[in-house]
């Protein structure tokens, strides 16, 4: 079972990684916007394809490994459309969650071609998804720090959004840019968690972020993709900052293993990065790395649910 499981990680876990790289490259080139959207019908078959046939064994292992009573919480998922052509609807997301027995997901916009200045359109799409599936979706809004963001920040907080998503690669900013630091301050003041893309194509994470984290210990921060380009430096720098969580979506198996060996399990949370990742393979990758690293059932349950769920209850 173990060798089959590892094979699944190498085939299916790396596939979304490649897609993500391409997506970032496309975004960096600024186009194209017209590539056919990822077909929702085809996507709806993903869970079935990844949990049946030769994949039935690894999926059964995942199901067995999820501790009894754990309501799986996905800390990183997108609803809307991206300039690279990817898309995810509220219905498509909920369908995948139901098929994979995932209870709750944090959702936020993609790098939307309709974002214009303030991201209000894509944020409205996320809010509508949340209104449709209130128990399933925890809505985060997205902003572009280069643009006027104060009004949209206030509008989203007043509306009831539960957090903020920032993407330094897509929106081309550094984490120590004064406008970004101001956003971190506003989020801390509003008691709003912030999920920062800290994965592909990032060059500086720890050095620009650490002064803000030290100055704002109350700021709740989720490092998307575990800060994998500076993983060991990040686990060392942020180990004494309990409000910083490491999120596991579309991270290579060996980096996930290093994460689970070097960071207290209570500081790690599971994510899928749908539509770049998928629930079965990201669950499998996270559980396998955690299992090999020797996590207990209680610690596994925290990674899959409790470590982040407590922020929203
Ligand atoms: Zn993402």
Task: Give an overview of the whole structure.
- There is one protein chain.
- Helix content is 48%, strand content 13%.
- It has 313 residues and is α/β, with parallel strands linked by helices.
- Strand 4, helix 6 and strand 5 form a beta-alpha-beta unit.
- The radius of gyration is 18 Å and the shape is globular.
- The N terminus is likely disordered.
- Bound molecules: zinc ion.
- The site of zinc ion has 3 residues, from strand 1.
Distinctive features:
single chain, 313 residues, alpha/beta, two-stranded antiparallel sheet, 13 helices, 13% strand, disordered N terminus, binds zinc ion
Shape call: globular
Structural class: alpha/beta
Helical segment count: 13
User: What's the story with the biggest beta sheet?
Assistant: 8 strands, parallel
Measured by DSSP, the beta-strand proportion falls in 5-15%
Helicity level? 40-55%
Alpha carbon gyration radius: 18 Å
Oligomer: single chain
Please provide the ordered H/E string of secondary-structure elements. Answer: HHHHEEEHEHEHEHEHEHEHEHH
In a few lines, what is going on in this structure?
The chain has 313 residues and is α/β, with parallel strands linked by helices. The chain has 13 helices and ten strands. It has an eight-stranded parallel sheet. The protein has a two-stranded antiparallel ribbon with strand order 2-3.
